[in-house]
Amino acid sequence: MKKIIALGGSNSKNSINKLLATYAANKVQNAIVSILDLNDFELPIYGVDLETENGIPENVKKLSNLIASTDGLVISLAEHNGSYTSSFKNTIDWLSRIDIKVWKDKPLLLLATSPGARGGATVLQSAKTYFPYLGGDVVADFSLVSFYDNFTENTISNNELNEELNQKIRLFEQKITHI
């Protein structure tokens, strides 16, 4: 059995991205899924002076170790003003202080969703470009547009979108199987 992490890139208690990441990760065959919540890894806002005075917070070390111990990650990114949420970006900033390869060369299935018609497309494109520099092996990506219209009763209700996600999940499965 492969170990994967599902992570929503938001600290919202009702994160639709955490729902999507959890949904997709649980569809990966032969995998043990750990669902991570950024709220469980509360961090101060990164600053070089703070790091110099206090070192790396224990929550950063814990998260970095969890990433290192997994076979792959399913990350769904919330979009705030066309970019990552401040909590997610802050987490990346702290993680990069331990290892610039934040994602530890692990396979990534990148997702994004939003209530709107673009489904977080801007932040998803940014992550596809940026995450390889942070040691992420981006295997596939998927954007779920109009979340509340297309995700009902804990499933993607739009058959075409659901099949597209299933194809992306199969690519991710193939990659983690060969690790």
TrEMBL record:
Gene3D superfamilies linked: 3.40.50.360
InterPro entries noted in UniProt: Flavoprotein-like_sf, FMN_Rdtase-like_dom, NAD(P)H-dep_reductase
Pfam families named among the record's database cross-references: FMN_red
Coiled coil residues, start to end: none
SUPFAM superfamilies: Flavoproteins
Residues annotated as domain NADPH-dependent FMN reductase-like: 3-143
Gene Ontology terms, MF aspect: FMN binding; oxidoreductase activity
GO CC annotations on file: cytosol
Protein name as annotated: NADPH-dependent FMN reductase
Organism: Aquimarina aggregata
Taxon lineage: Bacteria, Pseudomonadati, Bacteroidota, Flavobacteriia, Flavobacteriales
